[in-house]
Design goal:
Layout lengths: L2 H4 L9 E5 L24 H13 L4 E4 L21 H11 L4 E7 L5 H14 L4 E6 L4 H5 L8 H19 L7 E4 L4 E3 L9 E2 L4 E2 L14 E5 L3 H10 L2 E4 L4 H17 L8 E10 L3 H12 L3 H12 L14 H6 L9 H9 L4 H6 L8 E4 L1 H13 L5 E6 L2 H11 L1 H6 L12 H5 L12
Parallel strand pairs: 1-2, 1-13, 2-3, 3-4, 4-9, 9-10, 10-11, 11-12, 11-13
Antiparallel strand pairs: 5-6, 7-8
Helix pairs in contact: 2-3, 2-15, 3-4, 4-6, 6-7, 7-8
The structure holds flavin mononucleotide (FMN).
Length: 449
Amino acid sequence: MNALEDKITPIRKQMLIGLHLGNGYGSQPGAWRMPGVDPKSYTSFDARVKQAQAAERGKFQFIFLPDGPGAILADIESESPAFNLDVMMTLAAVARETQYIGLVATGSTTFNEPFNLARQFKALDIMSHGRAGWNAITSSGDDVAANYGRRIPSSEDRYGRAHEVIQLIQSLWGSWGKDAWVHNTESGQFAKREEIISINLQGKFVGSRGPLYIPPSEQGQPIIFHAGGSPNTHELAGRFANVVIGAAFTIEDARDQRNAFREAARRFGRNPDEINYIPGLMTTIAKDRRTALDRRILLGRGSFTKRISYLQQMLGVPLDASRLEDPISKTLLENARPSRYDPRSAHALKIAQEGWSVRDILAHGVIDYHPVIVGPGVEAADHMQAWFEAGAADGFWVSPDVNSDGIDAFVDEVIPILQERGLFHKEYAGKTLREHLGAPDQYGVDPRI
Ligand SMILES: Cc1cc2nc3c(=O)[nH]c(=O)nc-3n(C[C@H](O)[C@H](O)[C@H](O)COP(=O)(O)O)c2cc1C
């Protein structure tokens, strides 16, 4: 075992929690119209700062900002784009108004030059005193590529470039030795030239001479996150990532995904505990199920009728869009079969069998992107505990329905239960993101890889 491995916290006894911060309204498209929400939050940096502060009050380890970059504007008539105006500017604003919470932004390895990414993330790491994380993704989809006047490259080329970009960026981050910056006013020495080295890397896709002109931060350099699920993803995350932002609907699927990432880390000579698999969780927290469902119905305003045809496919039975108030009849339920093409179908059928009306079935979020908790805080805590203890998750990234009060609801109703059960920390153990994750400081590329 080398020095790096020595410092890894061996088994995670407490879970990690991150907050998903997209457009600032929340994870439901109708969030911008909800009572109490400033409809102009889309362009408000103050709103993001407030939301990050709410998450910091709940001791979340990080906020996570997804990015395209560039959003599809197909629903712009009625919906806000899902992303921040600019993730780095948002995090710069948040860094100045928070003290502990980790700041993680998505940055594409396909549509950025590595030197630009290296200095932006390192500057954020300095500004936040060691709290920056980079979600390194390759971008998928021609809609994003079109913003750069390009077509999306093949998977092989995207991942080939991604491996080079991350190595190069970590080399740039490490181009200043740990103690290179002396700023000694007495001797007049600003920095040790011999500890600041060019990197002179040229690969098939990218290159850089370096060095970067930014010293190490309190955590050395930013943490690498990754998001995705293809075999290419395992290899990239297995080499470089400390956190994987995931998506899974069942414990079994999440456990398989987590194990695949752990196995990939092992293949690259790393300790599997260095990689944390964090699936998503969407929440509507209220005092009881009925209140939570009514909130989702208000949020859904009119969109439920459009979703009926999809629910029909999931359950394999015809549904009448004019009778949203009725439960699905016994005869239909006896014939219903969960679609094998959609992993959410079994859960949708279970909810239908409980006798809820069609509108309420949809209000349970059975067609949303992650498991959804619609009810009191204890239900979210139970879900998180079950997944965590089953080895299906090292933590969760949480997407509240409406940020303006949904983050506080999670902090006040879910976090204390997790803390009482010993599943979540009560205080930040340190000030850097690496300390929050139990990851060792790093300067440059990991020598094992
Ligand atoms: C939970 C999750 C979050 C993701 N977040 C982003 C994101 O913020 N930006 C992005 O461009 N892609 C994001 N992706 C997409 C992945 O990076 C990846 O492109 C996708 O899974 C397709 O895989 P492929 O690139 O191997 O084709 C995300 C994927 C998952 C599962």
